[in-house]
Structure formats: C-alpha cells, structure tokens
UniProtKB/TrEMBL annotation:
Its cofactor is Mg(2+). Its main location: cytoplasm. It comes from the Bacteria. This is 2-isopropylmalate synthase. Homodimer. It is found in: Cytoplasm.
Length: 434
C-alpha cells in the first residue's frame, strides 16, 4: 500500500485521448544479475551478487533472473549457493537462462536443486539476420532448436517434482524477426510444454537490439498477443534494450499494447546502452497514480548499492535517482518551487503539483533541503529559501533583494555553487558585523 500523490491528470481537449493508459503495474523481472552482470567490465563476485540480490528482494521484486548457470563454475556455484543459503523468500521465484542444448539445460536444472519455485528461461535467436549470418540455418532448423530445448525442459522438470517449475521462452531478436515466424516458433514450444491458464508459459519478446521507434515494438507486441494460440495460457513479457534511448518508452507502449510483464535492470544497466530501466518505468507509473508495487522509498540505497555492485557511476541526471534531479539552479525555477511547496502544504486533494518537480523528493527518501542550490544564476527566492531552511529566518522582501546581490557577487568571485554555510557567512559579514 502507498500514500503517494500523483501528478494531477493532464487536461486534454478531446476526452477520447489518450486512447490507452497503463492502469496497473506489470509483473516485474529483474535481470540485473544476468543481462546486467554479463555487460559489466568487472562482473560481480559472489559477495556483490548477494548484496544486489538482497536489494532486489528489498525493493519488492518477485521474479529475479540470477544468472546463466551453464556459463561456468562461478555462475553455477553462485546460483546453487544462493538456493542453499535459504535467503530466497518463499514468494520470490528465481530464474536462470539457458541456451537450447541438452547438456546446458541439464546443468541449469542442477544449479536449482532444492529451489521451491524456479523459472527456467530458454532462448534461441529467430530473426533472418541471425539465421543467415550467425547460424546458416533455415526457419525449420531454428524452430527445431526451440522444440528440442522445450522437450528437455519438460523432461528435466518432470524428474524434479519437489520444485514448482515455470518456463520462459525467448525468441531472441524478436523485434527484428518476422512476426508470423515468432508466433509459429512459440506455438511449437507451447505444443511441447502444454501450458494452461493456471500454469502459463512466459513468452519473452526481446528487442535484443533496439532498431525502431517504440510504437513499432508495441505494434509487434499487440500483433503477437492477437495471433498467439491460447493467449490465456501465456504471459507476454517485454525485454527492451536502450540502443536508441527509448527502452523505457518501448516498455511503456508495450504494456499499453497488452503485455503482462516487464524485464529490465534497476537504473538501466545491461548490454551496450543497457536494459530497460525498471526504476524509471516504476516511478513513471507512480507519478501517474498507478501503484508500481515496488518500494523505491529509499532511492539513495538503490543508487549506492547499484554503484557499488556494478562499479559504474549513476549519471547525475538519471531520472528520479540522479544526484541533480531535484536541484534547481536558476532563480525563476527556485522561486516557482518555493511557491509550489507553500501551495502544496495547503493542498488536500491527494495530488502533487510543485512546479519543476514531477514527484515529491521525500517519497524517494530525498530531502527538501537538497532541492534548491545557489550559484551565480540563482535569484533572491532561492537564497531566502536556503536561509530559512538553514537558520529558520524569514527574510523580508526588501532584504531578500538586497542580500541576493551580495550572494551573487560571492558566487561570481568563487565561480562555484554556494552552500548554506557560505550564504550564512556572507549574511553575517554584511548585516551582522562584530
Ligand atoms: O536481449 C535479449 O534478447 C536477451 C535474451 C537472452 C532474452 O537478453
Ligand atoms: Zn537482453
């Protein structure tokens, strides 16, 4: 449950718009420990992976892809160790990725020995470029790879009845493949695994490399959903990458096109330009009044853990999470924000409407004090705000105007951002000489 305040609805001239909105959170799948990890300069060691796993659980992720067990002993040992430590909550399903080869699938199942519930994720690439350039195979041969893999999944799962198994199949490179062929391959996989509405199969439809505008991906998702047999026995999962910078938009449009699940990484780590950033998708929902069912109320903990585990910096302009996203340097922005906070205090309609701030920073554990910073571009409003926050002093209007000139001079002299101590120092020197 949340007590957040969304942005008020945007007034559109024709009430038919927008034609679609997202009205509930998707199922989330974190692939931080798999797609995210495989893209790192320094892949995570077991200590970092465990720390990241704990963060994912804390944030509320219920489906977590923990690795690629057949890739080598390090991956295998981490996954089997994780299962044995008992740190996987009962309501969390771990997922592992495997290529479609009997020995690799068997290794993947072996890594999950003892798990209460697990998802085995099979994939093979289906697009013409991969068929032609990478494999030199026909459509039939590529389809057969998926069928053969699905048969091994079915048989290995049957040998291990103590685990609740789910299956995911990805026609890798889906977004650049022929849609009818992707449906044909997925239906062949369904024929083997016989999913039902109570035990559905997850079809993950990747934009392995983002090659088109997000609406094209959404159209592909919609087409797939309309044409796949037994739609009610499958979960449609989105897996976007960010090569064109629109991984989040593609996931959002994909949800509006009928998908059920979104795969990605916290803060968008992942191959090349990254996977879909789950934090941004979740908080975009939040600001639209949809409970994302992820707890991001301590965003700094998320940023710190991700930076520690990935050894990559989080850009200061990263939506919702970057260091600078709740700062205002210009005077007019500072003034508007100050008025917005004052108006917000008197508001009781459940909405959040402070100019230039799309969300209450406090909802993410960030503080109001960090919102306004003062540099040579700041106006009197910002300076007065800092004095009020720091010293509890409300400066009269005329004094604000006079003092801001002194602060401006100080900022010009130092050519840097001024902190509360600098500002108060100048105030004392100007008005309270000893
Ligand atoms: O991007 C991709 O296609 C993948 C698959 C293995 C699902 O990561
Ligand atoms: Zn991927």
């Amino acid at each position: 449950s949340t007590k957040y305040r969304p942005f008020p609805p945007i007034d559109l001239p024709d009430r038919q718009w927008p034609s679609r909105t997202i009205t509930r959170a998707p199922r989330w799948l974190s692939t931080d420990l798999r797609d995210g990890n495989q893209a790192l300069i320094d892949p995570m060691d077991a200590e970092k992976k465990t720390r990241l796993f704990d963060l994912l659980v804390q944030v509320g992720l219920k489906e977590i892809e923990v690795g690629f067990p057949s890739a080598g002993a390090t991956e295998f040992d981490f996954i089997s160790g994780l299962v044995k430590t008992g740190r996987i909550p009962d309501d969390v399903a771990i997922q592992v990725l495997t290529q479609s080869r009997r020995d690799l699938i068997e290794t993947s199942f072996a890594s999950l020995a003892g798990a209460k519930t697990a998802i085995v994720h099979l994939y093979n690439a289906v697009s013409p470029a991969w068929r032609k350039i990478v494999f030199g195979m026909t459509r039939e041969q590529v389809k057969q790879i998926a069928i053969d893999g699905a048969k091994v999944l079915r048989d290995e799962a049957a040998k291990r009845p103590d685990t609740r198994w789910q299956f995911e199949y990805s026609p890798e490179t889906f977004s650049t493949a022929e849609l009818d062929f992707s449906v044909e391959v997925c239906e062949a996989v369904m024929d083997v695994l016989q999913p039902t509405p109570d035990a559905p199969i997850i079809f993950n439809l990747p934009a392995t490399v983002e090659c088109a505008t997000p609406n094209v991906y959404a159209d592909q998702i919609e087409w797939f959903g309309r044409h796949i047999r037994h739609r009610d026995a499958c979960v449609i999962s989105l897996h976007t990458h960010n090569d064109r910078g629109t991984g989040v938009a593609a996931a959002e449009l994909g949800m509006m096109a009928g998908a059920d699940r979104v795969e990605g990484c916290l803060l968008g780590n992942g191959e090349r330009t990254g996977n879909c950033d789950l934090v941004t998708v979740a908080l975009n929902l939040y600001t639209q009044g949809v409970d994302p069912r992820l707890d991001l109320s301590d965003i700094d903990a998320v940023v710190n853990t991700i930076q520690y585990c990935t050894n990559l910096p989080v850009h200061p302009r990263t939506p919702y999470a970057g260091d600078l996203v709740f700062t205002a340097f210009s005077g007019s922005h500072q003034d508007a924000i100050k008025k917005g906070f004052a108006a917000q205090g008197a508001r009781n309609d459940g909405f959040w409407e402070v100019p230039y701030l799309p969300i209450d920073p406090a909802d993410l554990g960030r503080s109001y004090e960090a919102v306004i910073r003062v540099n040579s571009q700041s106006g009197k409003g910002g300076v007065a705000w800092v004095i009020e926050q720091d010293r509890g002093l409300k400066l009269p209007k005329r004094l604000q105007a006079d003092f801001s000139r002194h602060v401006q001079a100080l900022a010009d002299e130092t050519s840097r951002e001024l902190g509360a101590a600098d500002i108060w120092g100048r105030f004392e020197a100007t008005y309270l000489p000893r």
